[in-house]
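Weekly structure sync - notes
Attendees: PM, LS, DV (DV joined late)
Agenda: review two folding runs queued last week.

Item 1: First target. Sequence and structure tokens pasted below for the record.
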Amino acid sequence: MNYYTLLSLVLTLVQLCPCTPSKQKQSTKNTNQSFTAVRRVKRGWVWEPLFATEEQTPTQPLYVGQLKSDLDKQDGNLQYILTGEGAGSIFVIDEYSGKIHVIQKLDREKKSFYTLRAQAINRNTHLPVEPESEFIIKVRDINDHEPQFLDGPYVATIPEMSPEGTSVTQVTATDGDDPSYGNSARLLYSLIQGQPYFSVEPKTGVIRMSSQMDRETKDQYLVIIQAKDMVGQAGAFSATATVTINLSDINDNAPKFQQRLYYMSISEEAPVGTTIGRLMAEDSDIGENAAMNYFIEGDSTDVFDIITDNETQEGIILLKKRVDYESKRRYNVRAKVVNRYIDERFLEEGPFEDTTIVKINVQDVDEPPVFTLENYVMEIAEGAVSGSLVGVVTARDPDNDDSPVRYSIVHGMYLKRLFSINEHNGTIITTKPLDREIAAWHNITVTATETRNPEKISEANVYIQVLDVNDHAPEFPKYYETFVCENAFSGQLIQNISAVDQDDSAEGHHFFFSLAQEATNNSHFTVKDNQDNTAGIFTAKSGFSRQEHLSFYLPILILDNGTPPLTSTNTLTITVCDCDIEVNIFFCRYGAFMYSIGLSTEALVAVLACVLILLVFILAIVAIRQQQQKSLFSEKMEEFRENIVRYDDEGGGEEDTEAFDISALRTRTVMRTHRPRKNMTTEIHSLCRQSLQVGPDSAVFRQFILEKLEEANTDPSAPPYDSLQMYAFEGTGSLAGSLSSLGSNMSDVDQNYEYLMDWGPQFKQLASMYVSHRSVRD
């Protein structure tokens, strides 16, 4: 086995293009480090990586390194062979000396290393002297790429007044060179534009605040950042990026009123809720940081109010209570504005509020009279004589001129018939006595009008209560239908009674019941007062007879507790009933009715039977008369039908155009209008003459029309209206001839139906019938 000596290969860099002095110096420095030593091992070679620097396209082969065997006697017997990636196209080897050259440009960003195989053979025997071995050539990077900001341009936002050193954003640039070799991909960031407000960290690209900035002064900044490779050394490549930095708003400004004093006015007749004016406070902040709330301070809060317009951020002053020029002519209102959202970080700088004064003047207007009260309540006793005093209303003119006032009552003539008012002093009196039971309250409306300006009118409601007077005696609430059985025993309760009173009692009604004086000593009944506004009627004896007394009339005295007390006598009718002890109302009513008219039950049944028979007889007569009326109507209908005449007369065919012109009967000259019956004969004669003119020239046809006309004129049963007779006549001269056999001068025997056989299979059956029929006759 042969052992080989491993030789060191030296990489020589040759610059084929013009370069800067710095690059040439760098290339010369890297030349001695292009190749690493190759170590010899038993049975084959193991190659350490070789390095080649990427260059521009070489004008001549660029030396990379040399392969040499210890068996090479330099007599030309050994041949060096190079195979693998780029062998022959990118890398070539001198087969005699083993020197490797690169003949094309290398780009590390496209391919960073090449794997090759080397072999030494005997040129004469073509047998390998050295075993084939693999080695790697790595492409060493040079600074041939510029940095790039892939995410630019940048936009960042940071709150205003942020402290110094606050991070704003970070910019990042990339470099296509090899970051593991040299400084080609090592970037350094710097600030070109943006001082003294911002700074940038050289290695990370983080932009930071250098000072506090106010958005209200400037709200946007444009910063330019530069990135350089080669750690910023001379000759390095660079790139720039723009960063737009916006300052967001914070609430660091208090609202301020535009004026220290405002003047406004309001009419004294303005209703509640009227807008008096608007206040505007300025806030340099924006958005919700500029949102404000307005308030009113002091004694004016009862009269005025202020609300915030959220769209315009204005304070709207509203009238909360009506003002009066004669009472107060000017108001000094203290208004305050406060930020709605306050940043606690800036509270130490002062309160975020402001105040102003609003002077509001009340404008005088001619006001209507004012009543001393909005509603008056008065009382008067019922039954008071006409002209009685009810009360007095008072109104005055609130203006300085104090115009006289005239009073009147409105709302209905009915109230005017009950009350009247003195138009000068407002005294209300009655014009007729009042009845509380008809109306306990009267509501009237009184107006007060300025005599100097009648358009100024005001109203007041007057409620008049009619006080009750005990002027109605108590009475039964209803009619009592009372029965007593013939076999009733003494002391039996037969009826409970009560009483009502139309008057109103402040202490409540209390009624007392007793028998009238005239019935006390001669009565079959007694009254027991229950002390609860009711009383019971009891029998005073046993047994009653309808033959002796059918009814009893019991006078009952009722007394109320009014002042003065009133009494009334009410009569209770008690009917004797044919019963044992218990009263049956229906049976007793029936018995009393029969007994009063003097009829028995049998007699009543007989009367009802007679009434029923009479009713049936009347219904039968009505039915017969209806049947007779129907018969008369049928006969009249038959008479009407006799006037409808139908005639069948064959014409000359569809081509007969010289026959009777039916359109003539439909002309306006023939159609007669409705006229009185007295002129009917004249019009019928006229129609006849027109018909004779348009009809066929036939004496028979003309005679027929005249006869019908005569019948119509002399018929007493003719209907009371005109009837139009229409006749059609075909005429003569039709080319097709008549289809009728009437008047034909030919018989069937003379007819020849042989032509039917030529009509086709559709008429085969018809032809066979006629042809066969004629054959039989022949």
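Item 2: Second target, run right after the first with the same settings.
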Amino acid sequence: MRGVSTDVFSPHPPTAERSRLQEMLSLLGLETYQAQKLSLQDALQISSDSMRNWAPQAPKDLPWNFLRKLQALNAEARNTTMVLDVPPDARPMEKESQMEEEIIYWDAADDISADIYSFSELPTPDTPVNPLDLLCALLLSSDGFLQQEIVLKMSLCQFALPLVLPDSENHYHTFLLWALRAVVRTWWAQPPRGVGGLREDSAVLSRAPTFAFVRMEVSSNSKSQLLNAVLSPSHRPRDCFWHRDLSVGTNPREIADGLVEVSWFLPSGREDLDVFPEPVAFLNLRGDIGSHWLQFKLLTEISSAVFILTDNISRKDYKLLYSLRGSATKYYFILSPYRGKRNTNLRFLNKLIPVLKMDHSHVLVKVSSTDSAGFVRRVRSIVAHVARSPCRRLSVEEMAHAARKLGLRVDEDCDECQRAKQRMERITRRIKDCDAYRRDELWLQGDPWRKAAQVEKELCQAQRAGDPPDKGRAELGHRLLELRAQQNRQDPAWGLQEFIAGISSPSLAEKQYFLRWMEWGLARVAQPRPRQPPETILSLRPKHCGMVDFGELLWPEPLGVEHFLREMGQFYEAESCLVEAGKLPAGQRRFAHFPGLALELLLKGLPLELIDGSTLSTPLHWVTGLLKELHVRLERRSRLVVLSALGAPGTGKSTLLNTMFGLRFATGRGCGPRGAFMQLVTVAENFSQDLGCDHILVIDSGGLIGGALTAAGERFELEASLATLLMGLSNVTVVSLAETRDIPPAVLHAFLRLEKTGHVPNYQFVYQNLQDACAPGPRPRDRRPLLDPPGDVSRAGAQMEKQGDGIRTLADLAFCDPEKQHVWHIPGLWHGVPPMAAVSLGYSEAIFELKRCLLENIRNGLSNQNKNIQQLIELVRRL
């Protein structure tokens, strides 16, 4: 057994250790992504692997398998087991020393430093890679935006998140502030007096007491298992932190020692589930503190208390801990002493008590005979006591300041990120009231756009009626031009000019940083949400909600990036309208480049608005301008399949699309904008010929379609027209249902209209279980709802199309073939009770099966004729 290095304060590991990183990267096939990092777009491409539930057969498959499962929010994403296709006669005989080797790996796997057994070898193709090594290698090979996506999806799976990423090859460790920026937490806040309510905040901005768990030399107790037990109610075990018992045969860590992970406990407002009454953060340092002194020093400066697990305290350990004298942090020891070492431990502990300001209650002993449940309760009581008393409470952002002082690299400190942040702050500093800002600074999308949209609708109705041109239509056309000229006389406000400058940056990375900063900056200045009663926490999930009540059709829109892009669209729309009418020379255009700027954002994963949520209108020139730019940019790879998702707000359609394709649609009523948005998904070049398309344009109807037949006929007609537009553009339509019997009447109306034209997209009805948070397993397809009699509102929608008398069940509709399995039952999203619930495995697996079916239908040509972009532009104009 090798002792602790004498150079414990040096951040530079030995040369032999540095070479292990390159060996691990080569083993996993990631060495090519060191110069040019793996991007989010690379990870989200659709390939042949997207259509099969494959198991990795070699270490090089593991990163892609992890990313695919993480995108689907699969709770088993950390499993690195490989299935080898090896003939039985080619398999090696079991070694006589197999048991001895297993014991060695057992001891080295989690809380025993890998360098203790220096003769351990890198994983071979027939033994799993340690999941923490896989995570570190993948993060080191990814750009900041893919890192952020990985961490966000890990948080939704309730995995512990990386906070400090070790990099032994390049002699520095990275504090992952940027990677954690996208994580938003919701919890039940109960003030000492008054009524409690839900609170939502960024994970990097909210302060909480923090407790670090570290190992000194050797410990018979597993930190990760202890942490999981502390975080879990007795009847709901959680595996936030990976540990050695979660995978049989996993190799010891090779490059992940020095990794610091973070996880939070968040109260739900239910006494039977809440281990602590307030949010509490827990940190876990992988490896021995002597070998990773820099990380340990950071933990002592950011934590409310540090728990040190060890079997014995040596003289060298005493010297290390003595250097912490004067620290304001509280220290606790968890001992499991070897026989004969008891007196040595007591001697050093007695010396440390005055140095670390401890007393005898700060020393806990856990041996094999100790009652585990009672020990966990004791640790919880210490945590609760420290949290109740005056103690250090830092946000992750404040922890990053401490990391900088110690010489750690912070991922947010690159010039591009900081310039983008400063530009965002200049814009948001002037926003005192969101409604007033929209009214005064984003003027074009207010009354002028609403009036112009109304005139355009009246013109369209007159043209659709087939009336000959008359004085009334001429007056409408003249009014429209007057409104557009009024818009065109305006100049972009200062905030919009700054926004345009931000997305015009020649640096692609700075442009992406700016957009993310704008999203978060605008969210911070937005008005706070109203508080909710405790039971509604089952329905909420920050940035990944979608399971909420949908009784209200319209809700206040929070100020977002889409409003700045909408304003750009109105400048372009007004100018194009005047040019088309001959009222403005084409050479005098000022905003012709706007679609190109917006297209860059679409190609980098930002949803763009297709139907304006405030006026429920389509800015035709703007949308066609975007599609023309897309056609030019994609050149030969312009074959499209359009996939749309329709349904009432709160039926989980946005969450479904995000989980299926890794998209960024806003989720949940009140969580985002009302309009319909589109995102582009790229098909890998080596798969596009087989699939029959180069890209999939995904459209989310947002909150445009109501769940019930509205009293106002005009409102229903408008919803039906919008549903007809979206489905008419689509090759594939997913209809998300909250009730098994009722299709939203506007959607049914659209089906009946399109049936007359012969253009009915391939469709899938998806019933999502919004009530049962712990569905036992998936039932991928269920035909019963399709065959049941339709509900009253569905019959009413059919009767408005004058087809109600002959429709007794939905199966009577010509487009519904009950023998073709078009109806899906998706289990509940959550396994457990939010905010500590993870996504259920049944939900993840059912979504994957639905995705596989949709892609199979596209490949087999069941989704109608695929379009090129030129055809799509013409279809937009006609519809």
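Discussion on item 2: The longest strand covers residues 280-288.
Action: LS to circulate a short write-up before next sync.
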